[in-house]
Specification:
Strand content: 5-15%
Strand order of the largest sheet: 2-1-3-4-5
Radius of gyration: 31 Å
Largest sheet: 5 strands, parallel
CATH topology of the largest domain: Rossmann fold
Number of strands: 7
Helix content: 55-70%
Distance between the termini: 64 Å
Structural class: alpha/beta
Shape: elongated
Order of helices and strands: EHEHEHEHEHEEHHH
CATH superfamily of the largest domain: Response regulator
CATH architecture of the largest domain: 3-Layer(aba) Sandwich
């Protein structure tokens, strides 16, 4: 989790020391509004700790910009009007300037749980179909070919068991691939091809 801290150095140091003790948390500190904007654009933080008493305009702008991408925690201002204005920005929470570390860590933990899950990787596709589906059907068809065409070749060499070993290996590979697609049609195809594959062994 990446945290951007924009407050006075003393408070920022305490926040960074407390937050950095959490596994997987990295902190960046900004001393000016310009630096805070630059870090926000470059680091894409997932949590912002902002201090409107340092720079109200920058804090408000960053809070609005982060509305859909990051959680925002404000250092509670002493002015009630400012606090009310910050509340309208719907922050994740407030911490006091002399905050308790347990309170801060609790908010960080809540923010981490609220983070959206990373998008799942799309499976490789071939001609619009999952690659595992295509390879699985191909292996099953190859197994059927071995079952029908290889007997004469292997019989001539006196090595007929090799046919069954090759057909069995290809059938198992196709089974493992097609079952991963969790497609009813793919499973039906597999069953049909498997029957064709085994049929030559009944002669």
């Amino acid at each position: 989790m990446r945290i951007l801290i924009f407050t006075d150095p003393r408070v920022g140091r305490r926040i960074r020391e407390a937050a950095s003790a959490e596994p997987g948390v990295t902190c960046a500190f900004a001393a000016t509004g310009e630096e805070a904007r630059s870090l926000f654009d470059g680091d894409k933080p997932q949590l912002l700790v902002l201090d409107a008493e340092i720079d109200f305009q920058t804090s408000a702008e960053l809070a609005r910009a982060a509305a859909q991408s990051a959680a925002v925690i404000f250092v509670r201002p002493g002015d009630a009007i400012v606090a009310e204005a910050l509340g309208e920005l719907r922050p994740f929470g407030f911490i006091d300037r002399g905050f308790d570390e347990t309170e801060l860590l609790h908010l960080i933990s809540k923010a981490r749980r609220a983070m959206p899950e990373p998008p799942a990787k799309k499976p490789w596709r071939f001609a619009g179909r999952p690659l595992t589906d295509v390879v699985g059907v191909g292996c099953a068809l190859a197994a059927a070919a071995v079952g029908f065409r290889a007997p004469a070749l292997f019989a001539a060499l006196g090595r007929l068991p090799g046919e069954y070993l090759a057909a069995g290996a290809l059938s198992l590979l196709s089974l493992s691939l097609l079952l991963r697609t969790q497609r009813t049609m793919a499973f039906a195809q597999l069953c049909a091809v498997t029957v064709i594959t085994i049929a030559p062994t009944w002669r």
